[in-house]
Automatic annotation (TrEMBL):
The lineage of its organism: Bacteria, Pseudomonadati, Planctomycetota, Phycisphaerae, environmental samples. Keywords: Lyase, Signal. Residues 124-278 form the Acetyl xylan esterase domain. Its EC number is 4.6.1.1. This is Adenylate cyclase. GO terms for molecular function: adenylate cyclase activity. Transmembrane segments: none annotated.
Length: 724
């Protein structure tokens, strides 16, 4: 449906009530950003062959936002005392970004050893446990036969993306990485090798954003990285119950995805006494500006609510022994980013006088599991967990077939691995209708506070002047068309086109239409016949004569102005590329601690402010209108702009959750869902919802009940059928 004024309902206008990084440690007063070695040739994130102006602006935007994150990373830590004062809060923030704060309950693991495999030097227990009810973890516990009655240092090996599938049966990544477990056992360690969520015997989902279009993950604040971290933490809980394990000497390692999970676990859990993450981390610049996010699944990222660079994750391992291992030609963990991260981490270790406990291992090669990486990792653990510095005399080898290491004969019927994304991060409970205005004010203020901190925290702290820059004005056949541009953020110009009948001096109201690319162009195409020479940069479709005539008649017959807002990625700033590129653009926004839709909410806010400064519109009441995803964008913008007198929301999704048509807003479901946002909007704006035919009749019961309970008036929330 094209975004336009619904003349059937807007005919009652006269009756409407318009109310409502780094060099050596810098001096204490200064923290310098990390130096930046020359970047390698770009393997990911390339622009389309024929980039649009929007593509070029987007690249500048990502570069600027990434630089902001890099500058802020650990900038508040100048002394060891600073680090001590902030570390607990940093750890809480990381847990929060992984969906682990408040921490889930440590429920009964219900561990089961389903069988044991024998080797001349060690045994392998085939283990399964539940990190939370129904979330199964499968693994292999390698135990040396020679123990001399002693408890042994223990390595948790977390697998990367290397599954073994045979005849359609998944045996898990533990089969592919078994040589590590056996090798550690042959060198005097207990070693537990655990499968990943996606590449285990019971296969869950890592690629929700990357491939499966599960964009609601952003609104849920869900990342599979949190599941992997929790499974690893619970694996330590399990290992503590084993009689062979010395729980005071835990180490952790893994490569690629397992390298990332090593980081999460070591950063969160002090039981880890030494860590060797292999090819599992680089900085945000590599991921966003250089585009290596295209080579990574969603399990590599926290939900970056607090806009961290990854050096802060690394620093949380300090002052414990940490060896950062990588290769010099790894295309998805580029060397320049690893070096920058190491420099920043080294500064934090130096502040704590723990330089000797941080190492950087760079070997030759690409993204591969090589002996050149394996041997130094073992020697690092020997040094810190066994106090040994001698040479390693054997090599890592695989000893077993997939069938020998398989844990389940039959997959458990109560497993939640395949659906854990639907429950791992709890949603906010449905709110109760407030008993009185005081209860409502407390609820509303709490919601707004959480939205500002956890959903829209990436918004600029300074809104700026929102000054509209005049581009052109023209009049033809009794209709005026004006174009303005407002700088929403650096490198984000937002175009606003205003159409008004020449007789309306001034218009009594302006309806700001917020549309996606297709709707925006369809709306403006009504003006192509008369003003096409002014709209050449938009590549508009041909006008529908009936629609164009209807729009002109409405403008010339009413005291209303219609404005069309081109938020980022729409109209003049639309970016090109195929569906894959569009996916990774949205993922890059998320890694910056934003969401595309969340920043479009900011764009609409700036457009509303700018509209109030346009001379032709001064004194006009402001209405907002949108459809589908953009109806949600308009809704949330209205919560922060008190001048919005009315909202017309067409086919607004009643939830941000499963399979809904957005908008995706960071963590929003941890605070509220769409009906609660409608209730907040209705406190000061008239809200008209044009309900899709398939939407349940009671979808908007909550805002209607709130309006009735608090006496806002029967006309404050109205629900109508959209038709079609």
């Amino acid at each position: 449906m094209r975004l336009r004024l619904d003349t059937k309902w807007f005919a009652v206008f006269a009756l409407a009530t318009l109310t409502g990084t780094l060099t050596p440690p810098a001096p204490a007063q200064q923290v310098r950003p990390a130096t930046r070695p020359a970047a390698p040739a770009r393997a990911f994130g390339a622009l389309p062959a024929d980039p649009t102006p929007g593509d070029l602006l987007l690249e500048k935007y990502f570069r600027a936002r990434t630089a902001d994150i890099a500058r802020a990373s650990l900038a508040d830590v100048r002394t060891a005392e600073d680090w001590d004062a902030n570390k607990a809060e940093y750890r809480r923030q990381l847990a929060d970004m992984l969906g682990l704060w408040p921490a889930p309950p440590r429920t009964d693991l219900k561990p089961v050893v389903t069988g044991t495999v024998d080797h001349a030097e060690f045994t392998v227990d085939k283990v399964q446990f539940q990190s939370m009810p129904g979330l199964y973890v499968t693994g292999s516990a390698y135990v040396p036969k020679r123990r001399d009655g002693k408890k042994l240092p223990t390595i948790l090996y977390v697998c990367g993306h290397g599954n073994t599938v045979k005849d359609g049966v998944s045996y898990g990544s533990k089969v592919n990485y078994q040589h590590h477990g056996g090798w550690f056992a042959r060198n005097g360690y207990v070693c537990m090798v655990i499968d990943t969520l996606q590449l285990g015997e019971t296969q869950g989902v890592h690629h929700g954003l990357y491939r499966e279009k599960m964009w609601w993950w952003i609104s849920r604040g869900h990342t599979p990285a949190g599941v992997e971290a929790w499974n690893s933490i619970r694996a330590l809980d399990y290992l503590q119950t084993r009689p062979e394990v010395d729980a005071t000497r835990f180490g952790i390692t893994g490569r690629s995805g397992g390298g990332a999970y090593s980081w999460w676990t070591a950063a969160l859990d002090d039981r880890i006494k030494a860590a060797v993450p292999v090819a599992g981390i680089t900085d945000v610049h590599n991921h966003v500006v250089d585009g290596v996010i295209e080579g990574h699944c969603d399990c590599m990222y926290m939900v970056n609510t607090y806009r961290w660079d990854f050096a802060k994750v690394a620093a949380l391992v300090s002052p414990r022994p940490l060896l950062i291992a990588n290769t010099d030609k790894d295309g998805i963990f580029p060397l320049d980013g690893v070096q920058r991260l190491h420099e920043q981490t080294r500064r934090i270790y130096r502040l704590q006088k723990a330089d000797a406990k941080l190492g950087l291992l760079i070997t030759e090669g690409g993204h591969q599991d090589t002996q050149d990486l394996q041997v130094p990792a073992l020697r690092w653990f020997n040094r810190w967990l066994k106090k040994e510095t001698g040479p390693v005399s054997n090599v890592a080898e695989k000893h077993f077939g997939p069938e020998q290491l398989k844990v389940f004969d039959k997959l458990p019927g109560d497993q939640r691995n395949t659906t854990i994304q639907e429950s791992f991060v709890p949603k906010a409970p449905p709110p109760a209708v407030p008993e009185n205005p005081e209860a409502w004010a407390k609820q509303r203020d709490g919601w707004l506070r959480e939205l500002k901190a956890k959903t829209f925290g990436a918004w600029p702290t300074d809104a700026g002047a929102a000054e509209p820059r005049h581009l052109f004005s023209a009049e033809k056949n009794g209709v005026e068309l004006h174009a303005f541009e407002v700088q929403s953020q650096p490198h984000v110009p937002v175009r606003v086109y205003v159409a008004v009948g020449a007789q309306a001096k001034p218009p009594q109201l302006v309806v700001l239409n917020v549309g996606e690319e297709k709707e925006f162009k369809a709306s403006l195409s009504a003006f192509k016949t008369d003003f096409g020479d002014r709209l050449t940069d938009l590549d508009l479709p041909d006008a529908d004569p009936k629609e164009a005539e209807s729009t002109a008649r409405m403008l010339k017959g009413t005291p209303w102005a219609m404005a069309y807002v081109a938020v980022r990625g729409v109209g003049p700033t639309a970016w090109g590329g195929d569906e894959k590129r569009q996916t990774h653009v949205r993922r890059r926004f998320a890694l910056l601690g934003e969401s595309l839709d969340g920043m479009r909410v900011w764009d609409v806010r700036q457009a509303v402010r700018a509209a109030g400064k346009i001379d032709r519109l001064k004194g006009s009441a402001v209405w907002l209108q949108g459809e589908g995803r953009m109806a949600g964008v308009a809704l949330y913008a209205s919560l922060f702009e008190p001048t919005v007198a009315r909202l017309d929301l067409h086919r607004l999704a009643a939830t941000h959750d499963l399979h809904a048509d957005g908008p995706e807003l960071l963590n929003v479901l941890r605070t509220l869902d769409v009906p609660a946002a409608v209730a907040m909007a209705a406190e000061r704006s008239q809200v008209r919802i044009y309900r899709a035919p398939a939407q349940p009749a009671d979808a908007w019961a909550y805002p209607s009940a709130v309006a009735a309970k608090l006496g806002w008036g029967a006309d404050r929330v109205q629900v109508r059928d959209a038709g079609g």
